[in-house]
Automatic annotation (TrEMBL):
Keywords: Cytokinin biosynthesis, Hydrolase. It comes from Flavobacterium celericrescens. The keyword ATP-binding does not apply. This is Cytokinin riboside 5'-monophosphate phosphoribohydrolase. PANTHER family: CYTOKININ RIBOSIDE 5'-MONOPHOSPHATE PHOSPHORIBOHYDROLASE (PTHR43393), LYSINE DECARBOXYLASE-LIKE PROTEIN (PTHR43393:SF3). It is an enzyme of class 3 (hydrolase). The lineage of its organism: Bacteria, Pseudomonadati, Bacteroidota, Flavobacteriia, Flavobacteriales. Belongs to the LOG family. Its EC number is 3.2.2.n1.
Length: 241
């Protein structure tokens, strides 16, 4: 990290600890509520018109020549051709690949952007009327899960894991429907899944063994589409587009 980055980080920390009067705290919190409400209202109205889609999660750092970028593009292309809309986080990397595949597949391509100090900028493959911007992560996450009929999770970092476990938790606690959660990349996900099964479930008894059935691991675009189609055939449903 460069010297100016350290200095900026120190300034941010000092700002957080700066003493504020009770009136300042109360006023700032009150205005934040209105900002949060506006993001929810705008998100609900926009996504309600779009209709349910499949969310594709993955790293913003993945380069266009990377095999996972190319695979995510193929997945989005294939599922859009099958009638599914695609939602991504709207940024670069896997998100761009998802929107790109949906765009060239002639499907609905949605981007839920977040203001970040690095990495994030919206990609050019989002439908112009379906590019939403958020300041709050938790509002954005609500839009992902509320309007998704399935979750395709590519290799990623902490943000990707956060989105994965959010979806698993909401399905496990029956807060949303039991939509398919599809992890792409056996090599990437096997270590985490082994730890969940052997340590978290078998050893520590911190989850139900049946919860592992919520997750399917695949390696190809054909397997992703098959998993989605099998889910919808089972419940006599069809894509919304």
């Amino acid at each position: 990290m460069a010297a100016d980055q350290y200095e900026n980080e120190d300034q941010r920390i000092q700002e957080k600890f700066k003493q504020k009067t009770w009136n300042e705290i109360r006023t700032n919190d009150s205005w934040a509520i209105f900002k949060i409400m506006s993001e929810f209202v705008n998100g609900y109205e926009s996504m309600g018109r779009i209709g349910p889609c499949v969310s594709i999660f993955g790293s913003a750092r993945t380069k266009p020549e990377d095999k996972n970028y190319l695979l995510a593009e193929k997945i989005a292309f294939k599922i859009s051709k099958a009638g599914y809309g695609v939602i991504t986080g709207g940024g670069p990397g896997i998100m761009e690949a998802g929107n790109k595949g949906a765009h060239y597949g002639g499907g609905t391509s949605v981007g839920l952007n977040i203001e970040l100090p690095f990495e994030q900028h919206f990609n050019p493959y989002i439908d112009k009327d379906k590019n939403l911007n958020f300041d709050y992560f938790f509002v954005r996450k609500v839009m992902f899960v509320k309007y998704s009929q399935g979750f395709v999770v590519m290799p990623g970092g902490f943000g990707t894991l956060d989105e994965l476990f959010e979806a698993v938790t909401l399905i496990q606690t029956k807060k949303i429907g039991k939509f398919p959660i599809i992890l792409v990349g056996t090599e990437f996900w096997s270590g985490l899944l082994d730890w969940i099964k052997n340590v978290m479930i078998d050893k520590m008894k911190n989850a139900n063994p049946d919860d592992m059935n919520l997750i399917k691991v695949v390696d190809t675009e054909d397997e992703v589409l098959e998993a989605l189609d099998n889910f919808y055939k089972k419940y006599n449903l069809s894509p919304n587009f």
